[in-house]
Structures are given as structure tokens and as C-alpha cells.
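Backbone-to-sequence.
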């Protein structure tokens, strides 16, 4: 994994970690309804999908560089990944 992607993934994972801690606190304190907890867990799922997007894009770009893929092909693959992971 390239350094820029690693830093972004770590930053995003720490954010998810903090978000999950907040959800745990909401549930433990018992002052949140089901809809509120579901809304927050859905946000965590979205954040994890974004992490996966970063990882997939980095994989494609790194691998394409080793395989001498054209820049156009890499852009097309990255666009496809972004569409699928939204």
C-alpha cells in the first residue's frame, strides 16, 4: 500500500472507531431510539465503504503501475470502482 493511501485509511479508520464509541455510549446510556442508532450504524457502514474505495483505488493504481497499464485504463478502472462502491 502506498503511503498516502495508508495515511488516509488510518485516518478514516480512527474516525470510524470514534463514531462506533459514540454509538456504544448512546446505547449504554439508553437515551437513543432505534432509529437514531440505526442512522448512526448506517453512517459507519458508509464510512467503511469509503475506506474500501480508497483501498481498491490504491490497489488498482499501484498494480497498474507495475503492469505498465495505460493512464486511460487506470482512470476507467478507478471510475468503475467509485460507481460500484457508492
Amino acid at each position: 500500500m502506498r503511503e498516502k493511501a495508508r495515511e488516509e485509511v488510518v485516518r478514516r479508520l480512527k474516525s470510524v472507531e470514534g463514531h462506533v464509541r459514540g454509538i456504544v455510549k448512546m446505547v449504554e446510556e439508553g437515551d437513543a431510539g432505534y432509529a437514531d442508532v440505526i442512522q448512526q450504524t448506517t453512517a459507519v457502514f458508509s464510512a467503511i465503504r469509503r475506506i474500501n474505495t480508497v483501498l481498491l483505488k490504491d490497489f488498482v493504481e499501484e498494480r497498474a503501475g507495475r503492469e505498465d497499464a495505460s493512464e486511460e485504463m487506470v482512470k476507467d478502472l478507478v471510475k468503475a470502482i467509485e460507481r460500484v462502491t457508492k
